[in-house]
Design brief:
Elements lengths: L6 E4 L15 H4 L21 E4 L1 H5 L6 E6 L4 E8 L2 E9 L12 E4 L2 E3 L3 E10 L5 E7 L9 E7 L3 E3 L6 E4 L12 E3 L4 H6 L6 E5 L1
Parallel strand pairs: 3-14, 12-13
Antiparallel strand pairs: 1-2, 2-5, 3-4, 4-5, 6-14, 7-11, 8-9, 8-10, 11-12
Length: about 210
Amino acid sequence: MLRLPFALISTGALALLVSCESDPSYSSQLRDPNSRYYQGGSYTGPTPSSSATVNQEVLDRTNPSNARIEISLGQQKARLYRVAGGSKELAVETRISTGREGNHTPVGSYSVLEKLRQKNSSLYGSWVNSETGAMIQGDGDSRHRPSGSNAEFQGASMPYWLRITRDGVGMHVGYVPNHPASHGCIRVPNKIQPLIWERVSVGTPVDIRP
């Protein structure tokens, strides 16, 4: 059978909708268009050395009935497979960013519990002034309200959301540096996560390995 070669897709121009972000410089850079944390446009800072491979011929035959996701924490890679008729074909492989020290992404066998095109975090995001919209705290936690009665929480955007655990760990579009950096979620480049999202459904197996 003729196989199409893997296509190399650069993620240097990925849009950065910050989700489980925890970098200490985050709060001062949310509004800076030249920052990797800028929420209003595309990333214009240094390009992380990450890329993805897509086997389009296999991807075209991948659907919720035969899709399987595998995550390697050690390699910081996610892979989408087509599993059917005793065969296992790689459709997508991509760099990811998982939970940092103290917020590890859990290892185990799971399945997709929820699939949403757009979701906002109920835990992590920004605190803003409810009257003026001015930023109070960028790297905010909804459980720790800043002083002042006008503080309003805005959950971080998590596009193309796939919930994996009942306590809130999932896959979604986000900034992918060359190391684990999230609060536990699995961040995927914005050009790749929609490809995975479109070919899975609630119930799709997800295997997270060390």
